[in-house]
Amino acid sequence: MKKLYEILKAILWLNIGAYIGNIICEYSYRVHYPDIFTVQSAPWYVAILPHTIFAIILTIILVIGMVIIQKKQ
After folding, report:
1. Which residue, 11, 25, 39, 72, is the most exposed by fewest CB within 10 angstroms?
2. Secondary structure, 3-state, 41-69
């Protein structure tokens, strides 16, 4: 169980890191190439909403799994 807990913990931190990296890349891409996005009326953060929803759902599932594993130990 401890090994599974450590795997879930690693996946959780990878998820958080990938999400933060995605936000930084999306923001910097829109700052460096504003001409491409001038026709869009939506703010820059609209592009990361699906990634945000996915990251939140995955984080909740991982934390629930980690809590269940800790209670069984």
Report:
1. 39
2. CCCHHHHHHHHHHHHHHHHHHHHHHHHHH
Q: What is the Rg, in whole angstroms, of the alpha carbon atoms belonging to the chain?
A: 17
Residue at 60: amino acid letter: I
Backbone φ and ψ of 42, nearest 5°: -80, 145
Alpha carbon distance 15, 59 (integer Å)? 8
Task: Tell me how far apart the 2 most distant CA atoms of the chain are, in Å.
Answer: 55
Query: What's the DSSP call for residue 42?
Result: S
Token duo for residue 33? 């190439």
The predicted model scores a pTM of: 0.80
User: Which sign does the torsion angle of CA 46, 48, 50, 54 carry?
Assistant: negative
State pLDDT tens for residues 33-55. 888 878 877 787 888 899 999 99
Torsion, Cα of 20, 4, 57, 60 (10° steps) = -100
